[in-house]
Amino acid sequence: MFKLDKQNRNPKYEQLTEKIKVQILSNMISPNTVQRSYYELENQG
Q1: Using CA atoms, how far apart are residues 37 and 30, in angstroms rounded to an integer?
Q2: pTM value?
Q3: How far apart are CA 29 and CA 13, in angstroms?
Protein backbone atom coordinates (compact mmCIF):
# COMPACT_ATOMS: atom_id res chain seq x y z
CA MET A 1 0.00 0.00 0.00
CA PHE A 2 1.28 3.45 -0.87
CA LYS A 3 0.60 6.38 1.42
CA LEU A 4 0.28 9.75 -0.27
CA ASP A 5 0.90 12.93 1.68
CA LYS A 6 -2.08 15.29 1.53
CA GLN A 7 0.14 18.16 2.68
CA ASN A 8 2.67 17.58 -0.12
CA ARG A 9 2.39 20.17 -2.90
CA ASN A 10 3.35 17.63 -5.56
CA PRO A 11 0.43 16.11 -7.46
CA LYS A 12 -0.68 12.70 -6.26
CA TYR A 13 0.40 11.04 -9.51
CA GLU A 14 3.95 12.36 -8.99
CA GLN A 15 4.02 11.09 -5.42
CA LEU A 16 2.80 7.67 -6.57
CA THR A 17 5.34 7.58 -9.41
CA GLU A 18 8.17 8.34 -6.99
CA LYS A 19 7.05 5.65 -4.56
CA ILE A 20 6.85 3.07 -7.34
CA LYS A 21 10.33 4.07 -8.55
CA VAL A 22 11.73 3.57 -5.05
CA GLN A 23 10.15 0.12 -4.87
CA ILE A 24 11.61 -0.87 -8.24
CA LEU A 25 15.09 0.46 -7.44
CA SER A 26 15.16 -1.35 -4.11
CA ASN A 27 14.12 -4.60 -5.84
CA MET A 28 10.94 -4.80 -3.79
CA ILE A 29 8.81 -4.93 -6.93
CA SER A 30 9.60 -5.98 -10.47
CA PRO A 31 9.26 -3.50 -13.35
CA ASN A 32 7.35 -6.25 -15.18
CA THR A 33 4.83 -6.40 -12.34
CA VAL A 34 4.26 -2.66 -12.57
CA GLN A 35 3.89 -2.83 -16.35
CA ARG A 36 1.39 -5.69 -16.08
CA SER A 37 -0.59 -3.83 -13.41
CA TYR A 38 -0.88 -0.73 -15.61
CA TYR A 39 -1.90 -2.92 -18.55
CA GLU A 40 -4.67 -4.50 -16.46
CA LEU A 41 -5.86 -1.12 -15.17
CA GLU A 42 -6.05 0.27 -18.71
CA ASN A 43 -8.05 -2.72 -19.90
CA GLN A 44 -10.50 -2.34 -17.03
CA GLY A 45 -11.14 1.25 -18.02
Answers
A1: 11
A2: 0.80
A3: 18
